[in-house]
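Help! Submission page says 'invalid entity' but I think these are all valid:
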Amino acid sequence: MRRLATVLAWAGLWLATAGPAVAVSPAAKEKVLTAASKNLIEIGLSYRGDQVTFFGVNPVPGADLVVRLTAAKEEDIKLSVKGRVGPFWMTVKQYEVSGVPFMYKIHAAKPLEEIIPPETARELELGYEAIRQKMKLHLLRGEAAADDADKVFQGLLKIKEEANLYNIVTDPRRLEVKEGQLFKHYFRFPPAATEGTYQVESFAFVNGELVGYGRDLIEIRKVGLEHWLTYTSQNHPVFFGIFSVLVAMGAGLGVGFIFKKGGHH
Amino acid sequence: MEIYLPIAGMSINFFLVIGIGGLVGFLSGLFGVGGGFLLTPLMMMIGIPPAVAAASDSCQIVAAASSGAFAHWRLGNVDFKLGLVILLGGITGGTIGVQLVKVLRAIGNFEFVMKVVYVLMLGLVGGAMFVESLRTIRRSRGAGFDSAAVAPSEPKLAQLFARLPLRMHFARSGLETSAIFPFSIGTIVGIMAALLGVGGGFIMVPAMIYIIGMPTIVAIGTDLFQIVITSANVTLQQAIVNRTVDLLLALILLAGSTIGAQFGALAGKRLKGEQIRILLAIIVLSLTVKLFLDLVLTPADLVSLAPAKGGGH
């Protein structure tokens, strides 16, 4: 019930913010039926990322499919830009970056520009260029330069791609479509994908026009010791600090007792 | 086998972490020094965010030093009065240091300042150690007729500091000296403990012996005592102010370093003192060069993520 409410609220928000200028609103189209191999990823002690397989039915046989994975919430981040100061390299300016997704992956069977015109890509925020358009920079420290927006965006892409949080794969082998109807693909969630809700949206296009849309939600949650350590350290820092010191002292004395040599320093 | 570090926010090979702990433990058992100054840079090299590396290292030092401190306390090797004066400095310095970390992280230059301080400190310590042990080796080859000349006489600095105001009597060390120097050195080591994640024994012990004039065994016992409390204070403050203490990481490092230290101590018995020191000097100097190159070579990434609130994520 709650999930349905969020989906409706989210769709409503989309319509409200997009307004009449958007000719194609995803929620109004035919439904792309999808299913995920799991909707909950748990971060435990031995977590090393996870992989989720998605299955779906193309509502219009033969339509071009584009699947996008994003974090439900956008992220405000701070980026440091290094520069030369004398012989040294150090941070010379900082930007607050907003409007960019924490995670962004796209799967399609062929390059996006062969599927949709640039305007549609921008409206639906498909492709890196659309993110670049949405990105807002706010200089926090240092002096701005003309090519900063470009430099910061390229730097951000590199950081995100190295952490496997961003990628765009346009390869029929990654998005298998059977008889133009049944499709199957998987997304890999890297260890850097933190707790939160992620959405996987499937878009179906015919001649560059949106004809179908579907959405799945994946939740990542820390469990057990990982959850306790993160939650306590971020929400009860005083208790966590005292606890850490006591555990360390206890462990140190215990270990010293085992080896009977008084340890080292 | 991968393990997920909750505060560093990353998945890392368990054996790599315990291996680094073991290596540093081995070296600290071999050389009889704390391994903090090696541990933080090594953790950064395997990708742990610098602030998390320093804070978790402090936590590990609390554990690693506590059993030694306990043993020395039972043997009566701790000068509590002098220890408390140093500690007052250590707690002041640690508190200042943690705030410094906070400010430096906010402006994005924590890593830079940390590396600069490391280069200066390791360069000085490594260089001095290298020169000193080279001299010792040469002298022992040259029949050793002037060995009496190097025996530490009453140090001039000790006499100078003893004349400063705030004189106190320290019964366990058999000293009458000013409280100003122990407090100041405590403050400096406290700041470094927060900034670098080190215990500071390699500065504190020589200062206690050569400048304050304490007996060696009391200096070592008192140093361990102040390290436990100073590092506990830094751990607590890092947890509160910067939220960067990764307890899981600290405990894995502790396990590794404890085992490594046992083997290090065994190996230490087979090597001569000056050989050990020249080896340590070479390790320290190569680390200095590596960190210096980090500062001056063009970095692979000019744009980097600055920490938001919280730990490494």
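Support: the input was valid. A stray whitespace character was the problem, and the output above is from the cleaned input. Confidence is low (pLDDT under 50) at residues 143-152, 309-313 of chain B.
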